[in-house]
Write a structure and sequence with these properties.
The protein has 333 residues and is of the alpha/beta class. The chain has 13 helices and eleven strands. It is globular and about 55 Å long. The structure holds phosphoric acid mono(formamide)ester.
């Protein structure tokens, strides 16, 4: 049985197949692939886009979505094996995953890290446990990667740039008042490398390098399929001739959960906001962000409101790529 936990588990032709189907949905194709079927959408964290687009996408495929707020409407859950459950958790994933699997045909999960211990969080323990015990396919709606967002970004880039192989992709850290999850940055690395792009990762300080699991995967993908990966702190070199700019803020992993120590490194990126002056250094690049996004902190109004900005299109693509994923997984024998 196939899950959609990370694009790293899917080949480039398989992902292109999903993107082609998503493009067809965007062009008006219809499907009743979920007729008589259901999907559980389990949210441990807030959402606007993911929740709406999965619910509506399931409806458009003829299915039914049940949205579960796992931080208020369901029983607190335990995910670790062998635990003496004398704390707040009332049930174990070994039961909840198998019970839900009897009601629905797909389970989708959003669960961000708790920002306590990256050594634990980097194993993605909650969705991994769900996938181990569920007997229906599991879809990642964002944990420490955000694979649906990756596909939405790639669909937008292919629409604007054509074949992206060999194109210059800038993933730039941008300011934010709080240290954030690395999921979207990890995912941007995975999808750009999988599709053969030349990646420049712009960070204010070496402590913002992403986990080796994703840096290493990106190195492997470009070695196998073309493209390159370069990490830099040089703003001018990073923007020079870029074809696509992707903005994301994230917390430095060496200070995971102990953020006070990150402050001097974060200060080095104080002027990393994307401005018209920076965009003028690019090759007339397109620019995007996963949303939600703080205007004039991460990206200046003049850039967000320019034709180069494709964040709205990327968010719209979430509906189409998720319909393609649900159709694909629901169609398994
Ligand atoms: N980009 C994204 O996943 O948006 P939401 O957090 O609103 O779902």
């Amino acid at each position: 049985m196939r899950n959609f936990l990370s694009t790293a588990d899917w080949s480039r032709p398989e992902l292109q197949g999903v993107l082609d189907r998503a493009a067809a949905f965007k062009d008006g194709a219809t499907s009743r692939a979920l007729e008589g079927k259901s999907i559980a959408l389990l949210f441990f964290n807030p959402s606007l886009r993911t929740r709406s687009s999965f619910d509506i996408g399931a409806h458009q495929l003829g299915g039914h979505a049940i949205v579960l707020d796992a931080k208020g409407q369901t029983w607190p859950m335990e995910f670790t094996d062998g635990t003496v459950m004398d704390g707040t958790a009332e049930e174990h994933v070994r039961e909840s995953a198998r019970v839900l699997s009897q009601y629905v045909d797909l389970i989708a999960i959003r669960c961000f890290p708790d920002f306590v211990d990256w050594k634990v969080e980097r194993e993605d323990p909650l969705i991994t446990a769900f996938a181990a015990h569920a007997t229906v396919p599991v879809i990642n709606m964002e944990t420490i990667v955000h694979p649906c967002q990756e596909l939405a970004l790639m669909l937008a880039m292919q629409s604007r740039l054509g074949d992206v192989a060999g194109k210059e992709f800038l993933l730039t850290w941008v300011p934010h008042p709080k240290p954030l999850n690395t999921a979207v940055a990890n995912s941007a690395l995975l999808i750009a490398s999988k599709f053969g792009m030349n990646i420049r990762m712009l960070i204010p300080d070496d402590v913002y390098r992403l986990d080796e699991r994703y840096m290493g995967a990106a190195e492997n993908f470009v070695a196998e399929g073309g493209g390159s990966l370069k990490v830099t702190t040089d703003v001018k070199a990073a923007y020079d001739g870029a074809d696509a700019v992707y903005a994301k803020s994230w917390g430095a992993l060496p200070f995971f959960g102990q953020w006070d120590g990150e402050a001097p490194s974060r200060a080095k990126g104080a002027d990393f906001m994307i401005t018209p002056e920076k965009m003028a250094m690019t090759n007339n690049a397109v620019i995007s962000h996963c949303l939600p996004m703080r205007r004039n902190v991460k990206i200046a109004d003049a850039v967000v409101d320019s034709p180069a900005f494709m964040g709205i299109e990327e968010a719209g693509n979430r509906l189409h790529v998720q319909k393609a994923i649900m159709e694909n997984l629901a169609g398994q024998a």
